[in-house]
Amino acid sequence: MRAYIVRFLLALSVLAIVALGANICGKKLEDKKYSRRNVVVARINEDLETYIRNTDTSLINEEAMIERVFYSRKGEWDKLYGADYSPKTVTAFLFFQGKMSGGDMSFNNGGQNTIVCGICPDGNYMGVAIYEFAQTGYSGFLLLMNITLILAALIVIVYGLYIYAAVIVPFNRLSDYPERLSRGGTVEKLPETKNRFFGRYVWGMNMLADKLENDRNTIRRISDDHQKLVTVLVHGIKTPAANIKLFSEAISTGLYDPEGKVNEKDAELAGKIEKNADEIERIVSEAVDTANAAIFEFNPDVNPFYSKEIEDFIREEYTNRLKVNRIPFNVEAEGNPLIKSDLNGVRRIIRQLMDNAIKYGDGNGITLRMSKTDEGNLISIVNKGKPLPASELPYVFNSLWRGSNSTVVKGSGIGLYEARFIARKLGGDIWMRAGDNETEVTLLLTSL
């Protein structure tokens, strides 16, 4: 966005510089033109005054005088000073003893191509001369150029605003979508658009979202099966391993000897058997830990952020989805405190809680509550609907456990387990409270 604004202002600045430079050059050319024309006028006017000075005033005729001084020498004036700077026509009006000859005095005085000059031989004001020049000035060109540059600036502004509205604004809305996809979880699809710039992009990103969602579901299902398999194996191995240890201990103490004596060789073998049973239990425990770590690997990246960022994230992710499902949504936030934690980790937790609120609520409303206490920052998701029985609440955060309200809802039983896993990695915790026709899940964030 900043780069676009800089380039846009740069384009306008270039046009402004071109306009300024052209006007300065035009002004200098105009000044040069007027200066040279003044020289020509002064020279012709001097010849007129000489003619009057050397001629009997009673015999002077303006037309004859102008013909003698200017028109008969027009080629000479044009060659000497240039046709652009030499007058096209000259008219004289003379005054003798308060009388005027020469007819009508109505003329255009002081135009861009007109110079009026007094005729004053020997310092006596005796008339005026009007010099008309051809329309060869730079004013028309400058006016046309300025109009063109103004139109160009308007085109740049209109086109810039069009690019901003049609490209920049939609791109800013779309640019963070790949990052949202990479965070995992359910991401609402981009709305279809006929925008010729991003239509195929939106279509492709929605296809990618579907593919990633299917892949995540497949991986989640495989992970669930893997964890269930490991759990079954653990329970299947632990019991025989414990029995083996009991039997080896009995042998080592001579419990099965008819005389109750301890056989040294049997005791030695029993010790080796018990050692191997301990090794089996250790390997089983490592397998469980490795399986859980592979599924819920999370390394906090702690940075400060404001609670408003969480609210903005929830609104961006879920507003359209809640509108489609006609679920009222409300935010109750106390101030905008600074939180020092992992924003992406918090988002993963909140996304899981929101998804559960949508799946298990009755659609009558979801509320996001945020507040700050002495213990830390509290973020709660409250959804309307029949809550779980109190007897099931202690188990909701167990891995692979699903409540009695999940019979018709798809799930794996590890979402809340993962949420608590991340919360505790962040130094906080998470708990659930069942109220009158509502369920509230609260996340506690403490500064790391």
Characterization of the model:
It is a single chain. With 448 residues, the protein is an alpha+beta fold. The chain has 10 helices and 11 strands. It has helices at residues 2-53, 62-69, 74-81, 139-175, 177-182, 199-252, 264-295, 307-324, 343-360, 415-425; strands at 89-96, 99-101, 114-119, 127-132, 303-306, 329-333, 338-341, 366-372, 377-384, 429-435, 438-445. The chain has a 5-stranded mixed beta sheet, covered by helices on one side. It has a 4-stranded antiparallel beta sheet with strand order 2-1-4-3, with helices on one face. A hairpin with a 7-residue loop joins strand 3 and strand 4. The longest helix has 54 residues, at 199-252.
Strand order of the largest sheet: 6-8-9-11-10
Query: Structural class, from secondary structure content?
Result: alpha+beta
The total strand number stands at 11
Bin the strand percentage: 5-15%
- Give the fraction of residues assigned to helices: 40-55%
Nearest-integer average pLDDT: 79
List the total number of helices: 10
Order of helices and strands: HHHEEEEHHHHEHEEHEEHEE
Distance between the termini: 34 Å
Shape: rod-shaped
Q: Notable features of this structure?
A:
alpha+beta; rod-shaped; 54% helix; 448 residues; 15% strand
Summarize the structure.
By secondary structure, this protein is of the alpha+beta class. It has 10 helices and 11 strands.
